[in-house]
Specification:
Layout: H1 5-16, H2 22-29, H3 33-45, E1 65-73, H4 78-89, E2 94-99, E3 106-112, H5 115-124, E4 132-139
Antiparallel strand pairs: 1-3, 1-4, 2-3
Helix pairs in contact: 1-2, 2-3
Length: 153
C-alpha cells in the first residue's frame, strides 16, 4: 500500500497517542476532520493499523528478566513448523518468535520475573514445545532500545 505524508503523519501521531480524538489528530496532521477520519478508516480497513492497545511497563509488572533463546528443531518440514508456531503463539511469556535463516531455526524473546522462573520455564515449557531438539539462551543485561514499528522514521 502506498502511504503518503498524511497517512504517515497519522501513523506517527497514533504511535505516540492512540487515544487522540479525531479533531486533535486532524489538527496535528494539518487536514480537516472528515478526510482525516476517512484516511484513518482506510488505514484500519486495509490492515495497516491492526489495533489499539495499552502499552504496559513490564518492569512495573515485575517482569524484568529478558532472555533470547535460540531454538533448534528436530524436524523442519512444514507440518512441524506449523505445530511449533501454533504452540509458541499460546505462550504469553514468549513476547516474540522469529524463524531464522542460520545455524538455528527460531529466535524467541522470553520475559519472566527472574532467572529462577526462566529456568523453570525453559525446562517445563520451551523444551516441551513440538520438535524442540535444543536451545541456547542469551540473557539481556539492559534494554538499550525498544521501539515499535511506527516509532521509526
Amino acid at each position: 500500500m502506498n502511504l503518503d505524508r498524511f497517512d504517515r503523519a497519522i501513523l506517527s501521531v497514533l504511535a505516540e497517542d492512540g487515544r487522540i480524538s479525531i479533531t486533535d489528530l486532524a489538527k496535528r496532521i494539518g487536514l480537516s476532520k472528515s478526510p482525516t477520519q476517512a484516511r484513518l478508516r482506510r488505514l484500519e480497513q486495509t490492515g495497516v493499523i491492526i489495533g489499539y492497545r495499552a502499552l504496559l511497563d513490564p518492569i512495573q509488572l515485575g517482569l524484568d528478566h529478558v532472555a533470547f533463546v535460540e531454538v533448534r528443531l528436530s524436524d523442519t518440514r512444514e507440518n512441524a513448523l506449523r505445530a511449533f508456531n501454533a504452540a509458541v503463539a499460546k505462550v504469553p511469556e514468549i513476547e516474540q518468535a522469529h524463524m531464522i535463516a542460520g545455524n538455528f531455526d527460531y529466535l524467541l524473546k522470553v520475559r519472566t520475573s527472574d532467572m529462577s522462573r526462566y529456568r523453570q520455564f525453559l525446562g517445563e515449557t520451551i523444551s516441551m514445545l513440538p520438535h524442540v531438539a535444543g536451545t541456547s539462551t542469551y540473557v539481556a543485561m539492559e534494554a538499550v532500545k525498544e521501539t515499535m514499528l511506527a516509532d521509526s522514521p
